[in-house]
Amino acid sequence: MVPALLAVILSQPMRPQPSVDELVNLAWQQADKADAKTVSKTDVKAELQHQQDLKADVELGAKYAIQVEKQSKLSTDTVMINRVQRVGAEIADLANQTHSIATWGDKRFNTFNYTFKVIENDEPNAFSLPGGYVYVQTGLLKFIESDDELAGVLAHEVSHAKFRHIATLQKEESKMSAITLPLILASILTGGGENAGAAITGTQILSTAVGNGWSVKAEEAADYGGIQLMVKSHYNPTGMLTVMERLALVEDSQPQFSAHLGIFRDHPPSKERADSMQSYLKQYNIPVERSKVSISFRAIVKPDDKIAGAVDISFDGHNLVSFAGNDALTRADLAAAKLNTFIDSTPATFEVGTGLAGAVLGGNQALFQFQPEDATAQGKSIADLQKLAVLNIRGALYTVNIRIWETH
Prior knowledge:
Elements: H1 2-10, H2 20-30, H3 33-36, H4 41-71, H5 78-97, E1 115-119, E2 126-129, E3 133-137, H6 138-143, H7 147-162, H8 165-172, H9 180-189, H10 194-203, H11 205-211, H12 214-232, H13 238-253, H14 271-283, E4 299-303, E5 311-315, E6 318-323, H15 328-344, E7 352-354, E8 359-362, E9 365-369, H16 372-378, H17 382-406
Parallel strand pairs: 1-3
Antiparallel strand pairs: 2-3, 4-5, 5-6, 7-8, 8-9
Helix pairs in contact: 1-2, 1-4, 2-4, 5-7, 7-12, 7-13, 9-10, 12-14, 13-14
């Protein structure tokens, strides 16, 4: 077996910089003959080279992790740190147990001892270094809306390391050197600030990398790798989609958001990536239920701040409907569940209407039904409450459809 021969190799006294061939030949001489017959020298050599590649990644990542932690302030927020490490550990375990398909990068089964740390930085970002060093910025932890979204981000970053994207870049770019690689990593560490940008531009690495499209390929591969990990986890893979959609909206509405992107910082979310993510979810038969992973897409039940005992359902900070009476909370909870299922299906606004006996319809199904106590509490007729609720729900659907349309 290859592991047995590798054990022989690794047990040998290490002379100064022995070659892979020297180690293999030495191991072959000392290995058990029965074991040696089951595997070729080529297999042993390939596996030894693999282990050396992984070791090189870890050494490179450790080197630049020191720089990250010198140039950045590590968070001391134990709640944030524990959350990232808890979710990260679950994703890392899956990564080390699962051979994911790499559409770009090292296609071998690569495992690392992943570490997860939190950096004080207001930008919603995360990045990984070779060898499994993953950093999450506090701005991202304030931006995400569920552990499902956090797991999606970490699965993406773990996939960058698992597929050895920096090593692949170094191998594919014939102009890469020991000088230019640190410049690219400097762009990661500084978030693509002016100094790093000037350095990279001076060496023409930015134009070379972007011109060859490696960053796009790397992001697509990490997206696909991330979704493969997510479907094996207990987290909802839709979280990868919703965080990407909201980042895309922020980028569109705040141009300064992407003004300092480094070339190895996550490729800005695009309609193409969002479309690909939806196709991945469809491939794995994962229903797109945004309300389950994002409060931005969820109808929320809360006490009415004006009418004592009344309960509201709001969406994106806007009130949709209010209920009163002894069973107000029960009716609101049932109505919110139906509204979330309905909104998750991304229906057209015309699919909301009024029904008989105070009902408000979504498609052909009753979402909820107003009672006389609702009308009394608000000083309106049941018919007026129906009309107002329909307008409010249509407004929520319009918001949802615009958000989705702008990112797909």
